[in-house]
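Extended Data, panel c. Modelled sequence:
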Amino acid sequence: MRGPKTVKVAVRHVNGDVGRRRTRAVTWAARDFRLVRPAEGRDRVELECPVCTASVLAEVADHARTRRVRNVWAAVSVVSLLVTVAALGYAVHEGGRALPAGQSLPGLFPASVIVAFAGLVMTPTAWVRGRHHIGVALLDGPEPRRGHRIVPARG
């Protein structure tokens, strides 16, 4: 049997956020932490910011819950892709028809175009959210905790 499952995260302190003409420059300092996942449910852990030594509260989910959330996001992405393809197919089919003079496209045509556009946005968004979900969430708190991020750490 393997030992407890861990997740490596970095607590980032945002030093500056400067909007430039065409780019945005964000500077930050980070410190890596290795958190132990609970056997069941969620645990709250207190992490210390590397710059301001503020207490940053995080919630760590168990491995099964994290895997379920990732699978749900993947399923949402697949369903969104299928709906997008169907709506786009309908829009192309109906939009390409030659109609007699004075007859307009069916009312479902604009809805299919809107659904296809929304799906083109939702599919990659859901896919990325699922791929980047690590099961650790920053719990928002009073002013000293603002300006911090919890991100996956490499290595």
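The mean pLDDT is 84. This feature is highlighted in the accompanying rendering.
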